[in-house]
Design a protein that fits this description.
Blueprint (H helix, E strand, L loop, with lengths): L17 E2 L9 E2 L7 E2 L2 E2 H5 L1 E4 H5 L22 H19 L3 E5 H4 L6 H22 L2 E6 L18 H20 L4 E4 L5 E2 L7 H21 L5 E4 L9 E2 L4 H10 L6 E6 H6 L4 H10 L3 E5 L18 H13 L8 E3 L10 H28 L1 H9 L6 H7 L5 H11 L9 H11 L1
Parallel strand pairs: 1-2, 5-6, 5-14, 6-7, 7-8, 8-10, 10-12, 12-13, 13-14
Antiparallel strand pairs: 3-4, 9-11
Helix pairs in contact: 3-5, 5-6, 6-7, 10-11, 11-12
């Protein structure tokens, strides 16, 4: 059958979302995200580089372990997988352009149904990437990053690159090749490795050392292939702790940085950090951002939040101004995201079933982060927070403290200094004052 492309409007009655300012009562307008507003020398659009997630927005059906899906999509009805994929692309690019987002992100199996035959699946990915290329040219929307879903298929129940069966590893490699090829074709700014099942359920049947080495070997193999075939973008790893395995090899920022350093991959990669994954790892989002930034690895962000009464990755849209203001201050201090953007890896709630709900969710998320950017800029411009932090470590800026940082003092020297100075004075960390200061700007 021939595939029909671009014949339908799926979000009728909804026009392109515009900026109307903080006093607007229009639920389908931005109050804070003014893409052309200059903040710290760049437009909001350049700073934030918003991307729409193909998976949750156009594939997620609202199902959960206790019931089937509640989101029924008019673009998901054709019997032919290629036609369904083309219809979904029509809906996706209509939504993305109406939101005014400059980028999108996708997994291969979000874009088109998977096949058990690698050749057939490669053909399908080539087909839909041709459509994406046409849509990008027509709309000006660009691909922030692509990735492969190496966790949903039953063959990956024990991992993909870390699977104990080499035949599964080979299938993972075939899928990675197709996804990388599509990303290169579409001019993707980056490529993400999202280790959905790269971990273990029990050490009783796991050779962890060997699996980690296989994971690193696959990353080296992919980097070599991509560079040889013209990929010039950034590679990202997205840390995640215990979901769905008992222990993920990419647990958090510090774990991933250590892994990349151990296997000589540090120069090729940055981190794509997600709020909800930070929560599940027992950290704050700001902690994960700071660890990455301190190591020159803060490159891209997934925007969502978790439910703090729920130990699962609920992927709700971001609403926490304080959380994002802290994160954006870290981003601004390092001069911006290093090669990535901000992707809405977030989904409507199961009972949010209207087409407009998808717009409300993204409008709110984009406004939250835009407002956080403005707050972060005010914090840095005001300067007191950074001055107080610098003053707290002033004893290392000169004298013996500076000599310690420079490695000039022996342990005997520290002993002698301690005996000479006596008991140090208590110096307040001013935590409550700083929390109040943050609150003033919010």
């Amino acid at each position: 059958m021939s595939v029909i492309i671009g014949q339908k409007e799926y979000f009728k009655g909804i026009e392109k979302i515009k900026f109307e300012g903080a006093d607007s009562d229009n639920p389908l307008a931005f109050r804070y995200y003014d893409e052309n507003r200059i903040v710290a020398g760049k437009t909001m659009k350049e700073h934030l580089r918003f991307a729409i997630a193909y998976w949750h927005s156009f594939c997620g059906d609202g199902s959960d372990p206790f019931g089937p899906g509640t989101h029924h999509y008019p673009w998901d009805v054709a019997s032919d997988p290629r036609q369904r994929a083309a219809d979904k692309a029509d809906a996706a690019f209509e939504f993305i352009t109406k939101m005014g987002a400059p980028f999108y992100c996708f997994h291969d199996v979000d874009a088109i149904d998977q096949s058990t035959d690698p050749k057939e699946f490669t053909s399908r990915v080539e087909f839909i990437s041709d459509i994406f290329a046409k849509k990008q040219a027509e709309s000006g929307v660009q691909l922030l990053w692509g990735t492969a879903n190496l966790f949903s298929n039953e063959r990956y129940m024990n991992g993909a690159s870390t699977n104990p069966n080499f035949e599964v590893v080979a299938h993972a490699g075939a899928q990675l090749k197709s996804a990388i090829d599509a990303t290169i074709k579409l001019g993707g700014r980056g490529y993400v490795f999202w280790g959905g099942r790269e971990g273990y359920m029990s050490l009783l049947n796991t050779d962890m050392k060997r699996e980690r080495e296989h994971f690193a070997r696959m990353l080296h193999t992919c980097v070599e292939y991509a560079r040889r075939n013209g990929f010039t973008g950034k590679f990202f790893i997205e840390p995640k702790p215990c979901e769905p395995t008992k222990h993920q090899y990419d647990y958090d920022s510090a774990t991933v940085i250590g892994f990349l350093r151990e296997f000589d991959l540090l120069s090729e990669f940055g981190l794509n950090l997600e709020v909800n994954h930070a929560t599940l790892a027992g950290h704050t989002f700001a902690h994960e951002c700071q660890v990455a930034s301190d190591n020159g690895m803060l490159a891209s962000l997934d925007a969502n939040r978790g439910d703090y009464q729920n130990g699962w990755d609920t992927d709700q849209f971001p609403t926490d101004i304080y959380e994002w203001a802290e994160a954006m201050a870290i981003v601004l201090r390092q001069g911006g995201l290093a090669g990535g953007g901000i992707n809405f890896d977030a989904k409507r709630r199961r009972n949010s079933t209207d087409a407009a709900d998808l717009f409300y969710a993204h409008v709110g998320g984009m406004d939250t982060i835009a407002r956080a950017l403005l707050i972060a800029d005010k914090i840095l411009t005001h300067g007191e927070m950074d001055r107080l932090k610098a003053a707290r470590y002033a004893s290392f800026d000169s004298g013996k403290g500076a000599e310690f940082e420079q490695g000039k003092l022996k342990l005997e020297d520290l002993y002698q200094i301690a005996t000479e100075i006596g008991e140090p004075a208590l110096i307040s960390g001013k935590q409550e004052y700083l929390e109040n200061l943050l609150g003033r700007f919010v």
